[in-house]
Hints:
Elements: E1 2-8, E2 14-20, E3 28-33, H1 44-52, E4 55-60, H2 80-98, E5 104-109, H3 111-114, E6 127-131, H4 143-164, H5 180-190, E7 216-221, H6 229-236, E8 244-249, H7 274-282
Parallel strand pairs: 3-4, 3-5, 5-6, 6-7, 7-8
Antiparallel strand pairs: 1-2, 2-4
Helix pairs in contact: 4-5
Amino acid sequence: MQQDISxxxxxxxxxxxxxxxPSSPLKGAIMIGPATGIKRRFYGRFxxxxxxxxxxxxxxxxxxxxxxxxxxxxxxxxDLVAWGQLDMPAVLDQLQNTFPGVNQHLVGHSxxxxxxxLMHNAQxxxxxxxxxxxxxxxxxxxxxxxLRAHFFMNVxxxxxxxxxxxxxxxxxxxxxxxPPGVARQWQAWCNHGGYVRAAFGKTVHEHLYDKLNMPxxxxxxxxxxxxxxxxxxxxxxxxxxxxxxxxxxxxNDHDIKFIGHxxxxxxxxxxxxxxxxxxxxxxx
Length: 284
């Protein structure tokens, strides 16, 4: 069974979310942290699969994205820090209230895994499963990909924000339209090593990146031009105490044509979802 719900953050902002309730005995609970600008509906089939394996699941839209926007994106004051410090903790609280008495886990997709250290309650998590979570540092991109990456980050984002008051990332296949604050931080952090580390002492004054120590599994794919191995390592360097296992996927090894930054969560990659199920079964 799945149900659309609302989750209120500590600052009063209300997020749109969906909860998935298994019909079999509950083995654990999982929140799915979305990538930048990606709506919760994108993760629906993956969430349903986890639910069929006995896990309660909550997906959600970050503030300023999808159904969690109360006006036009240009009027949203959302940023990446708010997603990590306000939205994600509220979702974890809701997960604990909806599925009490079991271990709580997080699936992080890209930004959903990058921002965990901003959650004041992240230590309540039993384990972390991240796909394509990396620093996104432009310096580490392959030569053939650097031009388009620099164009999007350092030309398209500032011009779009200037002309329209927000970033029309959907024009270039980069998810939903982004609130200006989200896009500006995304641009700034991807131009510096360690992703969120660039904000320490500036917009981030308290965090748990150097304290989290639950088991984690990090997957990335050889055909993902963003989450290359160097950028995964760069992101992990910020989680200085986090035990991390890593799996580098090669599409041909799994008879899959393309995985990239997004397709792990699409149905054509369903055979890869066993990595997540087996991980959570180990830590249920």
